[in-house]
Amino acid sequence: MTKQLPNLQVALDHSNLKGAITAAVSVGNEVDVIEAGTVCLLQVGSELVEVLRSLFPNKIIVADTKCADAGGTVAKNNAVRGADWMTCICSATIPTMKTARKAIEDINPDKGEIQVELYGDWTYDQAQQWLDAGISQAIYHQSRDALLAGETWGEKDLNKVKKLIEMGFRVSVTGGLSVDTLKLFEGVDVFTFIAGRGITEAKNPAGAARAFKDEIKQIGRAHV
Ligand code: 5RP
Ligand code: MG
Questions:
Q1: Percent of the chain clearing pLDDT 90 (strictly above)
Q2: What are the tens digits of pLDDT across the range 85-119?
Q3: Measured in angstroms, how far is the CA atom of residue 65 from the centroid of ligand 2?
Q4: In 3D, which of 179, 136, 186, 137 has the Cα closest to residue 8?
Q5: Which of 144, 182, 200 best tests ligand 1's pocket when mutated (most atoms within 8 Å of CB)?
Q6: Nearest Cα residue to 35 out of 74, 89, 82, 93
Q7: For the chain, what is the largest distance between any 2 Cα atoms, rounded to a whole number of angstroms?
Q8: Nearest ligand, CA of residue 86?
Q9: What is the mean pLDDT of residues 54-83?
Q10: CB distance 140 to 160 below 8 Å
Q11: Nearest-CA neighbor of 61 among 100, 112, 99?
C-alpha cells in the first residue's frame, strides 16, 4: 500500500492583510494547506480567512486561532468565512473543544475539524480526553519564543510526536522549521509539516515551498 506523504502547510503570520495575501498568492498553489496565522488573525480578524477562501476555493484553509474559550462562537465565525480546520490551545477545556468541533462540523460537515495546539504543559491523559471528544488532529509546536531563547528540535520532540501518533492522532509539527529540520522526522508518520517564515521570508517563497515539498518526498521515499 502506498503511504500518504506528509502535507505541506504554509503559515501566514504577517502583521497586515496585504503581506499575508501577497504571500498566499505566490505560494498557495505549491502547498496543500494554507493557514491564516495567529499573528495576522489577531491583526485583521477572520476577514483573512474569507479572502483566502475566495482565492483558493479548493484548498484546505486553517484558522490558527489557538482558541482558548467560546469555542462554538469562534469556530462558527471562522467556518462561515471558509475555514475547514481551526486550532484550539491545549489548555482549553473539553467543553470548549467540543463546542468548537460541533460548530465547525455543522457548517462544514465534509471537512470541518478542530486541531489541538500543543504548547507548554499537557499530559497524555488529556490527549486521550481530546481523542474521546472526537478530536484526532494535534499540532506539536515548538514555540517561536522558546526557539528564539535557544530551544532546538530533538529526540524529546520526536518521542512525543511518535507517542501521539501511536495513540491515534494525525500529528502536524511546526515551529521554525527549515528544509534541513525535516530530516529529523524521517520514518515518523507526520501528517503535515507547517512552515511559516521558512517559506514566506525566503527570497523566493514559491521556490522555498517547492524545496520543502522535495524534501518531504525525499524523506518519504527513504521509508517506503
Ligand atoms: C506560531 C505559529 C506559526 O504559524 C508556526 O510556528 C509556523 O511559523 P514559523 O515556521 O515561522 O515558526 O503558529 O505560534
Ligand atoms: Mg500558526
A1: 90
A2: 999 999 999 999 999 999 999 999 999 999 999 99
A3: 8
A4: 179
A5: 144
A6: 82
A7: 44
A8: 2
A9: 98
A10: yes
A11: 112
Atom of ligand 1 nearest to the CA of 144: 12
User: CA quadruple 142, 146, 147, 148: dihedral positive or negative?
Assistant: positive
124, 131 contact by CB (below 8 A): no
> Which residues surround ligand 1 with Cβ inside 6 Å?
11, 13, 37-38, 64, 144, 174-177, 194-198
Q: Report the residue among 7, 10, 13, 90 best suited for mutation to probe ligand 1: largest number of ligand atoms under 8 A from its CB.
A: 13
Residue 49 vs residues 19, 172, 210: alpha-carbon distances, Å: 14, 20, 24
Answer yes or no: is pLDDT of 224 > 80: no
Range 217-224 contact pairs with CB under 8 angstroms and sequence separation of 24 or more: 217/5, 219/182, 219/183, 219/185, 219/186, 219/187, 220/3, 220/5, 220/6, 222/186, 222/187, 223/3, 223/186, 223/187, 224/3
Instruction: Looking at the CA of residue 37, tell me the nearest atom of ligand 1.
Output: 4
- Rounded distance between C-alpha atoms, residue 93 and residue 200, angstroms: 33
Q: If you measure from the C-alpha of residue 135 to the centroid of ligand 1, how many angstroms do you get, rounded to a whole number?
A: 21
Kind and range of the H or E element at 160?
Answer: helix 155-167
Quote the CA–CA distance of 54 and 30 in Å, as a whole number.
17
Tell me the C-alpha distance between 42 and 45, whole Å.
6
Beta bridge partners of 8: 193
189, 152 contact by CB (below 8 A): no
